[in-house]
């Protein structure tokens, strides 16, 4: 009888610990995220954009936890989003020579992409384009979770 109770307690405590850990991984990026840029700030930065596109929730590898939606603007100095991303850790923005919407396709052509920078906010963002990176040489923008190797969203801008 005591062994059964110990097993039940062990399983229940491990389950609660695992659930708490998973919730922590999900919640921590939200709690430590910097303040999102305002719509005015994003509009100002995107006014210099040469291209625009749209993140949509209905891409092949997007799901309830990995998605983006909103208007993306791509310019020579900044890439902006007026919209939202599903919260998560370690998001990076890439420029790609071809549009992809699956993890397999992302991994297949990752070597030909350029990593532009980190995305630290989940509502609106502004990412500075590094010197020497020419967005006109690419045709898609992709958000990728480095920590878990997860496709978040993508948009074709040319």
Structure description:
With 158 residues, this protein is an alpha+beta fold. It is built from three helices and eight strands; from the N terminus they run ααββββαββββ. The longest helix is centred in the N-terminal third of the chain and has 31 residues, at 2-32. The mean pLDDT is 91.
Structural topology:
Blueprint: H1 2-32, H2 39-46, E1 51-55, E2 68-74, E3 78-85, E4 91-96, H3 103-109, E5 114-119, E6 123-128, E7 140-145, E8 150-156
Antiparallel strand pairs: 1-2, 2-3, 3-6, 4-5, 4-7, 7-8
How would you briefly describe this protein structure?
The protein has 158 residues and is of the alpha+beta class.
The radius of gyration over CA amounts to: 19 Å
Largest sheet entry = 4 strands, antiparallel
User: Approximately how much beta-strand content do the residues carry?
Assistant: 25-35%
Order of helices and strands: HHEEEEHEEEE
The percent range for helix content is 25-40%
Determine the number of helices (DSSP H or I, runs of at least 4 residues). 3
- Give the total of beta strands: 8
State the separation between the terminal residues, measured CA to CA.
68 Å
- Strand order within the widest sheet? 1-2-3-6
Q: What general outline do the C-alpha atoms trace? A: elongated
Low-confidence stretches: none
Give the rounded overall mean pLDDT: 91
Provide the structure class. alpha+beta
